[in-house]
Fold:
Amino acid sequence: MKAIYGLYTHGASAQSAVDRLRAAGVADKDITVLSPEPREDLALSHMHSRTYMWHFACLGGVIGFSAATALAYISETSWPLNVGGLPVVAWWPNLIIMFELTMLGAIVATIITLIVSAGLGVTRRGIYDPEVTSGSILVGVENPPDSSVDAFEQALSAPPGARVKKI
Amino acid sequence: MSTSSPALPASEQVRSDLLRPLLQTSWKFYVLVAFLGAIVVAALAAWVTQMTLGFGISGIRWPVYWGFYVTNFVFWIGISHAGTLISAILRLVNAGWRRPVTRCAEVITAFALIIGAMFPLIHLGRPWLAFWLFPYPSERMIWPNFRSPLVWDFFAINTYLTGSLLFLFLPMLPDFAIVRDRATGMRRRIYGVLALGWRGTPTQWHRLETAMQIMAVAIIPVAVSVHTIVSFDFSMAPVPMWQTTIFGPYFVAGAIFSGIAGLIIAMAILRRVLHLERYLHPVHFQNLGKLMLVMALLWGYFVFNERLVTYYGNGASEMQVFWRTQRLTFAPLYWTMVVCNFVLPLVIMGISRFRTITGCVIASIGVVIGMWLERFLIIVPSLGHKYLPYSFGTYSPQPVEIVITVGTFAAMTLLYVLFAKFVPIISIWELTAVQHPSPALIPPATAEHPLGETHA
Amino acid sequence: MPHRWGMAADLDRCNGCGACVVACAAENNISTVGAEQAALGRAKHWIRVERYWEGEFPDVRLKFRPVMCQQCDNAPCEPVCPTYASHHTDDGLNAQVYNRCIGTRYCANACPYNVRFFDFFNPSWEKPLQLQLNPDVSLREVGVMEKCTFCVQRIKAVTVQVAAEDRELKDGEITPACVQSCAAKALVFGDLNDPESEVSRLSHSPRGSKLLEDLGTLPKVTYLPRDTEA
Structure:
């Protein structure tokens, strides 16, 4: 993989680098930004902030609830024993099981959504530089077209404090 | 609750301070691990002995069929409410001072839950058959009884344990990435796997924070349900002083109460041993101390309610248990509990001059002892005095129970020590993120804070 | 109509001899635990004779009450069991299935009568008691809860025989060990669904009462207390 990227210690410089890349005609989805901590104070953090995670969590909850309802109902009716004069399908106690599995479903769905949508668990792809975890923000472009490498380099090295690397 | 937070060191300083325990090991660590490990091994040996020789080597007897083990179960599940619940609430209200506290708290939850969940196994007559609680279509064609509070426990604790472990693990990902990038060799590979390929793209940060929000919302009702269901183990049985509707909230309040105490003790030790004075400030202890004061008052309120209603109802069997704890056999333990859980925290946490770190720790040790006694006093006096005077009985713990009880405290400490050795015990990225607060999280200016309060 | 087994205990007749306790232990293979364990409270008495003194010294009266599993219709021990070891049978018995029991001891805590006993050790008998074990009753291993069954092995034996002979069950045909051994005939066993049976008659006696009746457990054992001095 070829790539060109700049490392910035200041958020404003990183933001400026992103803006310059945009001006040079790079689409948002092609700009890679890596930061050592969440930078919600910068506009660059809001590039991909649309998520359906809450919806998936609710969906997981619904699945958990249905599973619990089915589990409780089916197992009770398939093994109908009288205990202490309670009904065989006793909904008050079943509500507890239904609640717990609803929550479990929501939690598991959230985790799955996180892993899938944040691209976790896959072997590392794309630009990476260990300096990110030492406090630098990385802004770069993967596989830049040969014709525009110089333009990108210019854009990336323009902000103060920039260190541009090519691989 | 104050949202102001003392100034934190610069990011680079944060990283090197918090990674130091991972990268440097003194001989004291090995001695401590060996010491604690020996106690844990002794406890395991005690359990194996109990299984080999028979349950009779414990002090359990007719009619007191639950003793130290169930006390420990309720106690540790209670301690587990320190972490995830407190941390989830603080995250949701975005209390700035939470940042150095959350992970220490969540770790307590994870380990206390694992230890607490061991006790239903340890106390089983035939622990090798415990898997019969799993709802699976076995060859026996028998499903578990969903009308049994123990099955509710099984579901609640498993949900809570899963949620808490994930809640602890998620914010560790970026920190694992930090360790990965600084480590070499084997360690680099292990942390690389643990970091799940974390890079730090805006998408990853945003999804992580959203996931934490959802988890916080989900985990709070689960935590409340867990201790309510633990209380159901008692309140579902027609036993004097057990069958009461107050047990749910009473147990939840007690759990949070003992949880805060456990958290304060853990934080004080971490601060001293790992030299985290620049991260865990007196204000953290003061804030948690105030929270503990509130819980002490709430605990006192519940106990007063429980006692007054019993006293006024004047039922023959209830009054047997009532006086047994209030004035007779169990009175020394009962009044120790009242002093530890109410008088001590009220005095120490109520007077601001005493609300120092030392003061908080003293009050917390009192609360931990008091809350352990509370669970013991709920279980044993009632079981020993159920209705028919002919069948009154008593209980005294035997060595195997004492060894296992001590062993769980050692196990908790051991797990905590090992965790602090391998994972930054304070979330690094959450601290460095303080310097870049999101504009959305800065509240508007008020008369008191003309510039708007920074949620650092 | 299914049977509904019940018992009546006439406390006016009970002289506290303890024959029922011995007979029960012999019939049901209840293991002995030794003096030391018994002193700790590990003795297992599926039926016990409770002894209470009444009045002020020297004017005291001794009262006996044989207490066994009350086979409650609304049994608190049943729903708390996670594995259905404790459940209700069609003929109204509180069944305890030893093989399903994992030993949470929750049922014994929930039982207001304290008539459930835990096996703290594997069963053993002092010689020569092991020679009189009953082949009709299973042994219980360590970690299992056990209790009075109304001698379910005897109930089954008779009902199977009756069904094979295709006839009606006669009142008094089934006698649990305690009933059989009661010299004073204080204990009566039978079918509560049979209005003609003696146990039915006694359970409707104005003298009759249930143990801890106000807990709402609906026990099937009726106690007929001594007539207090008029």
Notes: Chain C has a mean pLDDT of 92. The interface with chain B takes residues 37, 40-43, 48, 50-52, 67, 76, 79-84, 100-106, 108-110, 112-114, 117-122, 141-145, 211-212, 215, 217 of chain C (CB under 8 Å).
